[in-house]
Target: DivIVA domain-containing protein
Amino acid sequence: MSLTPLDIHNKAFSRGFRGYDEDEVNDFLDQIIKDYETLIREKKDLEQQIKNSNEKLSHFSNIETTLNKSILVAQETAEDVKQNANKEAKLIVMEAKKNADRIINEALEKSRKVTLNIEELKKEANVYRTRFQMLIEAQLELLKSDDWKSMTPDTETVENGSDDSLANTQA
Model:
């Protein structure tokens, strides 16, 4: 059990025949009481400082733990975001490739159709040209034939005023 300044102050010593000087002992005890009170006050102050320091340490330890957890969560979240971005990028690339393939296939199909149409039009143009050429040649043959000459009236008959031959040819 520790002594308190009050214990020291209230301590009574038994008196002997040739004991110590009472004033000297009291002065010394007063000095001890003062020093002891100072030590107790300093001890209490130091204990309070330790308590405050421990509270701060506990607070900062909690903050550190929270920050570490937050950092871990942020790292995990960043990794998740990165993975999701990579997946999305791959999906976009795949979709772009599919669209590119589709567009190329559509263009090739249109190109084939246009080529077929061109070939068909060339054939039709050749047929039309051949038919037109045959028609022209047939008309030229008709013009060159002797039948044409018989259809036209003689110039002498027309000059004489004979309308019979003209009427016959029109009928």
